[in-house]
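Comment on this:
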Amino acid sequence: MMAKDALFSGESKNIEYKVALPDKSEKYMKTIVAFANTQGGKLIIGVDDRTHQIVGVENEVLFQLMDGIANAVSDSCVPQIIPDIEPQTVNGKTVIVVSVEPGKNRPYYLKSKGKEQGTYIRVAGTSRLAFPDKVKELEMEGARISWDELTCVGYPVTDEATEKLCKDIESFREKAGMSANSVKKEQLINWKILKQSDGQLLATNAYALLTSDYFPFSKTQCAVFKGADRVVFLDKREFTGPVYNQIEEAVDFVLRNIRLGATIGGLVRKEKYELPPEAIREMIINAHCHRNLLDESCIQVAIYDDRLEVTSPGGLYNGLTYEEVMNGHSKLRNKGIANVFSQMGLVEAWGSGIKRIFNCAREYGLPEPKIQEFDNMFRVELFRNISSGQIESNSVKKTEWNQRKCGESSEKMRRKFGESSEKVRKNELNDIQKKIINILSIDARLPAAKIAEELCISSRSVEKNIRKLKEYGILVRHGSPRNGYWEITQKYE
């Protein structure tokens, strides 16, 4: 039983009051069904939902009411729900507490209305009719099926795409310091990324997500806003293609658009972002691992003056609670994607991502991150330490901030604000651009594909950053695309 102060402190996602038992059972059966379809909860009879005043239930009819509730639940709900119904005395008055556990045979619905019109879920303290995509997800929860492991009908399995995926997994493993075992299609079958049927290889939805932009909803939208709301855009990008490439590009976008400082202690100069890169990466990886793929909304990464915000479709999965998340518990919504991410070293341990974000923020001296669940969306907010305006460190003797504004890092934005782009400061370059320069300083004839292979990123990402370096005047191409070479002009400080 919940503590009394929590039980009677007000309605929430998991608690609902009724001053008296409604004449029509349907009015409270919706709540019973909604609790079973989400995180469970308690319906309390004998408490005013407006004032939270405990009015109680007459003892003469107490057991009659409890029997009536049990019979109504049995007659009205499909599949069967067995609540715990018990009286509780508070301040000399008796209330009825109906406790419903998160159901395992989802979806639960009202028999009289049918599955499509009678399935309810809890959203922000109210019981709401579930949308069709949510009903489908509940069906898969009940069947213990992950959508990304289903066959993607009509999507071809090609040797080229399969080999590239295997090579990319190997590259990520090497980058993460994991064992350098080769990855073959047999591993993809074991990980349920590919299926075998009658001697034929079939693609799963995960395979399509990992090899292409086949699904229109599979994209990561990134934007920089002026101020603390979504009124004025400073910059925006939309990344598609294999989901792991989207992650890399989205992380790169954030790093380009937050301040990069230099801490100097003694003779050592260290660059440090105002937000922890590890936390940024975890936020975006978590969004892709746990998003609801039946919802055709996109993952959104938004940078404001005061915070970084990552929003993904789908609330907490399969009855998972906020408290469980904070304690490191996890329930995998996308098992295939999550399994591959684990093999790539993108995920260290299930359920550790949110805790790691909070730990990183604390180590950086930032305000505590915020987690929100609303309208079947999940959002993590990481707050910028705008009060100090600088990176704080006990060992720092001097701190220098580059002065670029968010969203002004691109050549287009610099021209818009009348800034000169003839000479670019080295600390204005992102990490990928710096690495490209270092690689080309060793071998100026390397093609983009080889650079991409060495950096373990997509060729498209390399080509995009090379274009920027050309715009900055740092790289100049000489000769043909096949037999030419790159000149590093050193037009940066």
